Structures are given as structure tokens and as C-alpha cells.
Amino acid sequence: MRKIKGKTNTTEKEFVFEFKAGRNHCVLKVPLEFPVKENVSDLHGRLMLLHKIPCFVEHDLKNRLLAFIESETLEDYNRDAEAALQRLTSGEVDINKLTNSWAKAYTETTLEHARPEEPSWDEDFADVYHELIHSPASDTLLNLEHSYYVSVSELIGERDMEIKKLQERQAAEMDKVMQELGKTMSDQDVNTVASQHFDAQQDLENKWANELKQVTGIQKQEYQEWVIKLHQDLHNPNNSTISEEIKVQPGQLAEGGELGAGLFEEQQQLEESFTIHLGAQLKTMHNLRLVRANVLDFCKHRHHGSSGAKLRRLQTALSLYSSSLCGLALLVDNRVNSYSGIKRDFATVSKECTDFHFPRLSEQLEVVQQVVLYARAQRSSKQKEQPEMPKNGTTEDKNKNIERNSSNILPGEFYITRHSNLSEVHIVFHLCVDDNVRSGNLTARDPAIMGLRNILKVCCTHDITTITIPLLLVHDMAEEMTIPWCLKRAELVFKCVKGFMMEMASWDGGISRTVQFLVPQSISEDMFYQLSNMLPQIFRVSSTLTLTSKR
Amino acid sequence: MQALQGAELGAFTFFASPLPHDVCGSNGLPLTPNSIKILGRFQILKTITHPRLCQYVDISRGKHERLIVVAEHYEHSLQDLLKQHHPVSSEKVLQIAYEVLEGLTFMNRHGVVHRALSPHNVLLDRKGKVKLAKFGLYHMTDHGADVDFPIGYPSYLAPEVIAQGSFYLSEGSVVEAPLPSGPKADVWSVGMLLFELCAGRQLLQNIEISERLKFIITLGCMDDIVTVLAEEHGCLDVIRELPDNVQTLLRRCLMFPPSKRPTPAQLLEEPVFVGVASLYPAYQNPVSLFSSSPRCAHLELPEDLNELCKGDGQDYLSERTVDEVYHLWCLAGGDLEKELTNKDIIQSKPPVCTLPNFIFEDGESFGQSRDRSFLLDDTTVTLSLCQLRNRLRDVTGEAYYPLLEDEHCGLPQSNSSTELSAASNLPLIIRERDTEYQLTRIVLFDRLLANPRERNCPLVWKEARVDVPPLLRGLAWATLLGVEGDIQAKYDAIDKDTAIPTDRQIEVDIPRCHQYDELLSSPQGHVKFRRVLKAWVVSHPDLVYWQGLDSLCAPFLYLNFNNEALAYACMSAFIPKYLYDFFLKDNSHVIQEYLTVFSQMIAFHDPELSNHLNEIGFIPDLYAIPWFLTMFTHVFPLHKIFHLWDTLLLGNSSFPFCIGVAILQQLRDRLLANGFNECILLFSDLPEIDIERCVRESISLFCWTPKSATFRQHAQTAKPLSDGIGIGRPLAYYSSDYHDYPDLPNTDLSREPLKLSELKAEVSPRISSEDLIDLCELTGPAHFKTPVKRPKTVKTKILAVDIRSAEDFGRGHVQGSVNIPYGSACTPDGELLQCPATHLLATHKGRVIVVLSNIMKNAATFAAHLVKLNYPRVCVLDGGMNKMKSTGLLTVPSPQI
Q1: Is B352 close to A89, i.e. CB distance below 8 A?
Q2: What's the N-to-C CA distance of chain B in angstroms?
Q3: Å from B265 to nearest chain A CA?
Q4: pLDDT tens digit string along B478-529?
Q5: Rounded to an integer, what distance in angstroms lies between the CA atom of residue B662 and that of residue B602?
Q6: With a CB-CB cutoff of 8 Å, which residues 107-136 of chain B face chain A?
Q7: Which pTM does this prediction carry?
Q8: CATH code matching the domain that covers A271-541, chosen among 3.20.20.80, 3.10.450.40, 3.40.220.10, 2.60.260.20
């Protein structure tokens, strides 16, 4: 709550009305509460009815009532206004503080008084890029991006090769050392060799990491410069060299049928789509999709050769600065880094291709880490300010946790990274979950579910129209995740998401969205179909439109 | 509302402040977004019409809590006068002061305070008269509580306003909101404005805002504020030379203590304006349509009637009211957001650039920089009417002033009339978006509805059969429902405040009724809902509140949002017509009878479906009660209800049956394919229904239904025809003869009431002898009160089947009837026995089959049998052949030789 409605001090005043009926002198006294909220005509009607007032004084009563209310209200206004002025002269309110808060209000909320905007390179580039990608130049842009991608992946290949070679060599060396162990070599020697190996490996990796960083940095700079230049050239076409290039470029979007490599991979992907209606009377239409895939499939780039990869790439590029973004929810642990597990895998994927628009993942995570620290500080200072805030046991537990390490995040909280270099996704929500999600009795009040709700809310406020959610709230299956466990979890998430989507309709007026439910690659086909049977029972699937009517 | 005249339409936009994260209201439901609150509070501003105020027209919600307000607009303002940098003459100053105060007085009377006066909000129309703009901003934002920005401009804020503090707070801290400002705050602003005009320059322009405000506050210590201001701005000489009355005026306005400052109304009465006041006649509020006083009371015709005919001659569009012009502007492709984006008022950043970095579990976000595009830019953009005028270029003057007395006056006789009548064949959805068509319809309905009701009623009915223009739907429905009289006084006299036991239920239902709609979900909407519902409950002591009444109220309230009295009156007229006695405390007999008749109607129109539904036990009681109790308002969204009711209101009380059957038929395939459980699921959340098709089909079903088939003993009994209403009756809706209203007075040939159990036992509806006579075109002796014959559109759509024995048949039967003796009609396995008569039956499948017999039970069983065999449109003659005998209309075949 930021604003609290002012205490409007209500006062009661008595309205007196006298009239003569025949020889009787009648007096009507009505206590009225000020400020008057109800409709005067209603009040008048009620008085007439309640006190059986003769109709010949009807108009008189109404006029007097109106006049009374008007004058009394005015008096109240006067009183309040004078009191406010009095507070200033008496020094109860500091005049400087007051005027400064007004000044702040004007400068922070109105364009007229706001400080002029510093030009932001990011946004200018966004405009330029958005314009170009929607022009014939888009093909050239994509090809350029692809060629950069190819060179990076060559580099990565080289790196992997070299690391592999090193590892092989080291393994051989180690073998030799092990054989000599006890003969000419002592344990000490083995340890030394091992640490040497380790250092060598580190050095190599660092070297490559640096190289990659440098290359992508150069690529990014080149790319951005080129885009700006291209944009300028397109606007004064006289001295254009690049725009000529574009004209010469044949449309390469229609690709050959090089289906080879990707085919096997994609066969394993199962998916089913549904169109649903939400709402009791006014219905809004949404698309749902149930997909069995690896979560990183939405991020990984494929070579242009593979089917549809370039089209997908174009689609993602076209919508990057538009108001129909694609998001993905990634389940992570409570540390903001990319050292282990799915976070590491994701980081690897995000490095496969240079991000020409946004900072590198590591840089973004650094910013997030700063923001988390700042947010925590804000929170705790606020909590100290208002000790009367109701605290229940769980929040206190949490507070202890935070105090232990305030740079960590808690279940249900999430951070957001932005990417232009992933294949089908612009926005990644890193939702923190704990081991609780593996348990069988997750409730709708669980932080992870609340996190989903907030993700959907951000989707609303930031025009993310396609969002992919892990249906079972896990990325990999484990022993304890039995069929009943899966069904129960899927039902919970389906139902909660349905509720949130209905709520969303009131936030944004019911814009049509696509929600993709992702299930791990490792669940059985049978399980998948069970889930896909469950979906239409929870969501109302729209009927097929019959174009030929029988009647 | 006033005519457009020389005005333009203007739009400006602002953002409502976002709600705090995850806070629920006291009733546990999510909070209403501030933009919706504003939208609800805005509505009343549309009714504030005064020549000194810019008429508010519309408000619309955009993405992310954006609001766009449309109002009358003028390009010139006091700002332009100030830009000339020399003092304005004192006469002019007095006039401007008077006009501004007139406007302020009028809005104060409606409880509205301006708070945002500034030179650019005091507009000047083409004649140089003042028009106040943005006068409702303070009101609609709940005294600034629903927006982030402060309302008002620093230089013009009254000292007490400054002292009470601003709403805006930096993140986090909690501060008490300032108390609302009173009318006197505006008088100070007027004083500053007038001072600027007198001095010919703007005040306090080059100082920091906080210094400016400090200066205003410290004026309180000065003896002579006007002199101090003049000295500060180096224009003491100019001010000194002003005439005394202007100086007095300035001093009165710039009176520091609010208690000594006059209100606008008081100021108007002061002697300074003696010379000016006489120039301005008092403004008369136009009398509303439903009023006890004569509307022509203040009408003054000029001496020379030709004066009236003088005009620019060509620009008919500007004679239409502002809201009509705006409506047409929208139809002609107007897009508010686009207009504002073109003028760079709406600037949006790509959403990917404005994402937050980190979000707490409770939804609070961090790491988002303040988006500049959310800052207030309250520039008003003029909406160009060029496109609309272009579109309407070819519409002739006759279209704007149609002759209603003309014999075929439906559409104006102009060059475009053929085009328009062609347009009237297009689907409704297209017609409602067609600019020219809507223009002619609006003009026509406007004329019809504004005229004396009795005379134009038939015309309204006739035109409403074509369609009802959305803009005037509220009034058109009121006319169709026969609402008249001083409804406002009636409504005011009802006690809507005293607590009654129903309150709790109403309170629970309202936040669940059509809440997808912005108007009805706004707090204002809820208040109005409550009042109208309570008024209805209180004023109908014999009836009670049943859940569903709220849905029933919704369309009326939506259409007459600013006129609760009319909403109440329409609802009160609607319920006895269509839902007579449905809201009795014990309504089971009414509903049971209704549902039984409904299931007979299903059997009558769709025997196959009826058989299936009966077989799986999916009876109307399970799904149709909310349909009929709320007249479908519970199941459809408002925009569909409008189209449905446009037709429903023209039909009689049995039309809803046909709608019900039409809905079932649209879902026919799915119902037939499914069992009980699936059907229940299907209806628990009714799928999308194509409403135009539903309307079309229900009309055709209605035409096929003999009028007595839907006879109900608990229906409203026909009132004796009074003459006044009688004239309004040549209203047969559909081309068929089945006359809608009133349900004709009973004669001995009408249907007689049946016990519910008996009614329930019969699968097919009974029809009266009257209907039979009518359908078979039997002509009888003149004394029979058969309805007046009209040319038949369908040759014969009836087949009478006489199931008496052949002998009885021989003794006298209805002309054209077929004899299938009951005893020998069927084979043991349920098939009809093959004979010429049954063959005839089979070949005439699809016609209305009337089963005639002496014994009702046999007839009913036979009819049920036919239904089983999927014969549609089977009905039974009520009272049997005995009733027919008394008419003397039976024919005896000449003995065969």
C-alpha cells in the first residue's frame, strides 16, 4: 500500500426544517453525516416517505435541504483549508519539505517538468534494428548473424577439440605416472602432476574463454556498427554500397531439404496443441500446447541447414522489439550464477552465439546480483520501519535464511534475463525452486506456484505473449516421480495456470496468449498422452468451427 | 447533449497509478484497477452539459492502465491571448471572468471541482466564448488518488491546496492523502489567470517549482497580494491603471484565507459583474425526455421564423450532437491510440527493454528504471473529422432530416436510399459498423424517440424490426417496453438506503455479475447496481430477489448507466412482460410449468433431440432455469444479449422458448453424440453460440409455433385493451400471423388450463381450436371471433390427423383432415401401419400435425408415438373434437355412391 486514503473526519450536523400544516407547526430534525455521500434526491425521497411529509412542502424541503448541505459542506472545506494553512504557519509542517515534495511530484510524473531524457544508445539501436528487420534488409541481417554464429561455433569446436586433446594427453601421462607409482614416483609426485594437469586445463579454458569473449565482443561491435551504417545508407540511398548488396542478395529463405541431422532429434519431440476458451460469459481465446522436449531445445541454435531453423530465427528476430515476446521459465536453485546443473547448461547454450543486443549472460547475472542485494536491503529497512506488519512463522524463518546469505534468492522469487541469441525465446525467467517441488503434496500456495503467477503477471505487463512453463515443475525425472505423482502435479499446475490466466484477463483485458506446457524428454509416450487427455478436462477446449452448416 | 457546431473533438491521455502487488479487497476479491475506477467515475461527467464547459464524450482504456479521454475541444485558449504579450482590455477580462465563473458555478452544482485551471485549459470557441476543458479530471481521479501525477499546475495552485500536500510520494513511504479541495481553490486560480490577462504576461514562469510554491504560500503574510504580485513581475503601473472593478475582482479572487474568498457562485452575484451579467441569459437545462413538465415550456421561437432556417446550409453533420459525431468518427475508422501516437503523445518503448531484473515472491519487482513513456503529457490532440466528412460527403440533407409522415418512411428518399436498403440486408455486425447506415439510423431513431410516444410508437416498432442503432439502444428499448411518465420522480421516491434483508445477497452477487465489463465492474457500477436492484426489490413487495435478478439488471444498467431511473423503469416493465411471477417467493409452479412447456417445444421442433435428451434424462430443469430466469443474461456476454434482446423485446412472452430451442439446436450435434455427464459438463460452461444465427432461427421457430402451443396458465393475463395502447398495436412482428401481444382475450375456443401433472405427462403441446381454425383456414359464421384474416404466406403448413374411428370421422370432420383410427394405427412393434393415410403422413413430414380425437389421452399417446418416430411439429387439439363440433365448422363428406 503506498497511499492511504485521508482520514475524512466525519461530523454530524443537524438539519432542521419547519413548516406549517394548517394550524400545526411541524419541525423536522435530521442528523446528517458530513461529508454527505448519498444522493440528495434519495435522501429527500426517503425523508418524505419516512416522516410522511405532506407533498405541499416537497419542493421547499428539497431546496432547503440542498442549501443546507451546500453551505455546510463549504464550511467544512473552509475549516480544512484553514487548518492546513495553520499547520504551515505554526511550523507543524515544514514548508521546505512540503514544497520539495510537490516539486518532486511534478518532476517525476509529468513530462513538462521532467528532466530531459538522456539519449540511450540501447533504445536507439532497438529502433534502428526493429526498422531494419522489418525491411528487405532482414535477410542480410540474418545471414550476417549466421555467419558470425558459424565462426563462433567453429571456435567452440576448436576449443573443444583442443581441450579434448589436452585431456587425452594428460590421461596418458597420468597413466604412465600411475604405473610408476611406488617405483620411481611417490604420492607427492602424483599429486604434483595432477595439480599441474589441473592448472594446465584451467589455463587452456581461460585462454579460450578470453578468446571467445574477445571474439564475441568484436563481433558485437562490428555488427552494431554495421547495422547503424546500413540504416543510414538506407535513408540516403545515393552513396549506398550495402543496400546494393541487399538487392543482389537472392531470397534464401526457401532452403533446401537438408533435413539430416536435426531429424532424429525432432522425432523425439512430442507435441499437441489446443485452443481454449476462458471466461463465463465473455470468452477469451488462448492457445495451449503440451510439448515433450528438453527445455534447452527452445534455446539452442541449429545450423541454417536444419529445417525451419532460419524461419524460426527470423520470427524471433522480428518480434524482439515488438509487443509479442516469447518467454521461458527455467527452474534454478537459490544462487545467482551459472556454475552448476541446468544453469551451467543454459550458460553454455547462451554462449554458442553472440548476443548482439543485450549484455552477456554473466554480465546480466552480475546486475541481477546487485539488484537482489539492493532489494533485500530495501525490504529489511522497510520491515524495520513498520514493525507492526504481521509476521508469521514462515517469514521469520525466511528472514533467518536471508540473513545467512542475502545474496541468495528464495523459492518463488525469480530473476529475468534478456537474450537475442536464443532460437525461440527472448526472455528467460529463472524461477527459484527448492527440493519441495519433488515432494508429492505440493499445494497451490507453494512459492513455486506463486512464482508462476508472478511470471504470468510480468507477461501481462510486458507483452510477453508466448510463455513456456515446465508442467511438472522439474526439468528431469527422478525415481520418486511415479505416474500418480505426475498426474497429480500436472493437474495442480494446469488448474493453477487456468486460474492465473483467468485473472490475467482482468489485468490486460483478455489478450490472446500461447502457453506451452513443457514435460521432460524422459517421460513415456503413454504418460504424455495421459497428460494430453487431462488438459481438455480442465480447460474448455473450443469446438471446431463448422464451415458448412447443415441447416 | 449539445450539437457539435464549430467544436472539434479532442483526446488526451494519462495513466492511472498501478495497484500495489497482491492486495485483496475487503471482500477477498482482487482490487479493482484504478483505471476502471476512473472509467466508472467518468461516466457522470458525460451528463454535465453547459455552454461554458467542454462536453465530455468518452473514455477508453488502453493497455497497461492507460486512459484516453475524448471531449469537445477548441484550438484556441487563453494561452494564445497571453502569447500576444500585451494586456487584455478590462472589458474582455470581465467577460472572460464571468464566463469562467459561470462554468465553475455550474460544475460546482454537480459536485465537481476543476482544480486544474490554467490558461491552456480555458479554451475559446469560434465566437471567443470561454469553454473550460479538463474540468472533470479532479473528479474522475477521485481527487487525484488514482493517478501518480498531481492535478493542477504549480503557478495556479491555491495556497491551501499547496498546504494540504501532494499525493505523490517517493517509493515506499506511507503518507496520509490530502483532503479534497473545495470550489474556492478554483477561484484563486481564476484570480491568477485574470491577473496574467491584465498584466499581459505569465506569472512565476522562470522560477523553480518549489520556489514558486513557497512564494504562493508566503503571500499569506502580505497585505496586498495583488500589489506584491505586480511588483514582483514589474507591472505595477499596468495593474494600477486598471479600472476599479477589475482591481476589486482580482482582490476578491486572490483573497488568501479561504474563508474570506468567495465561491464562484457568490462571486457571480457580486457588484463587479453588474455591467456584464446582463449580457448572459441564464442557462436552462434542457428538459429530459421523461419529465412531468412540458418540454416546450422554455421554447422561444424567434419573431421571424425564417431565422431558424438560416444556417450555414451545408454542414449538417455539425448539427448532430457531439457524441453522435464521435460515434460516427469511430465507425469511420477513427483510432484514438493511433491519433495520439501520430502526435507523439503516446510513446512506447519496446517492452523487452523495460523488464525488471528481479521479482519477489509477492510480486514486487526491482531493477526497472522509471519508464519515461509513463509520464504525463496532457496535451490534447484534435481528432480530425476529415475522414468522417469525406465518408459522409454523399449523404444528402434529406438523410439528416427525414420526413416521417411519408408513407414508406422507413428510409429517407434520397439517392442513396437504394444503397441503404441494400445495406439493411447485410449481416447485423456489418450494419453496426457502417458509417452511413448508422448515421441514417441514428437520425431516424433520434427523431422517433424524441417525439410524443403514442404517435411514434408503431414506427419505432417497425424500425426496430430492422435493427436498433447501438448508440440509442437504451432509449429505443425503453420505448419498446412502453416506459413513460416521470420516472425520475418515481425512482427518487423509492427508499434505496434503508437496510433490507436482501442486501447481503445483493452484495455477494454484484461482484460476480458481468464483471468482464469495465463499466459494470467499476465501483460506480456496483453502487448503481445496488441501488437499482434495491429499488426494484423494495417497490415490488409481492416479489422477492432471486439470484439472477442481478444479471437481468445488467443490460439495462449498462445501457442507461447515467440514468438509473430509466434502468429501473425498463427492468420493472420487462419483468412482468417476460418473467411474470418468476420472482414469487414460491415460484416453483411457475417455473415447472414453464419448463414443461419448454420441453414440449423441444419435442415439437426437434423430436430427435427431444427423444435423445429424454432418454439420457437430461431434462430442462438441469440447465434451462438460469436461461429463462435471467432471460439468457446469465449465459451470454452483454454484446450478445443486446442482439438477442433487440429481437426478444419485439416478441411476446413465448418467444424465449424459441430462443431456448434455437440454442439447443446449435449444440445439437454435440448433444446427440453425448451422454448425460458430457451434456452436464457442456452446459456448465456454455460454449460459444452464434447469436445472429440463434436469433434468425428462433424467429423461424416462432413462426412455426401455433400461438396457443405455448399457453401457460401462469402467464400474465391479458389486460383489457385501452385505446391508447390499442393504436400502437399493428405490430405483428413476423411475417406470419402469429400475433405477438397482447395474448388475445380468452374465448371459449381458447386453451384451458391443465394441471401440472397432466401437462407434464404430455410430450406434445396442445393447441386451441382457435388456432386450428385459423391454421386450416376454416371459415365460419361471422360471429366467431377468429382473428382477422391476412393473406397467407405459406400455403398450408398443417395436416390434421383424426384418430377417431372411421364412423365418427364419417359423421363429421375437419376439412382436409386425414383419418387414422387410433386402435389400428400401430403395429405391435411400434411402427405405423402402412396404409394410404400413414403414407400421406410420411410424405407431409415437416408440416404441423394436429392430432384430433375425442379422448385426449389417446390423442396424447398417439402424438407421443409420432414424436418417437421423429415426426416434428406434432401437436394435439385441446378439448378434442367436441370443442370443434360446437363451432359448426365440421364437414360431412357426401355419401359415396
Answers
A1: no
A2: 81
A3: 12
A4: 989 988 888 998 999 898 888 899 999 999 999 889 988 999 999 999 999 9
A5: 9
A6: none
A7: 0.88
A8: 3.40.220.10
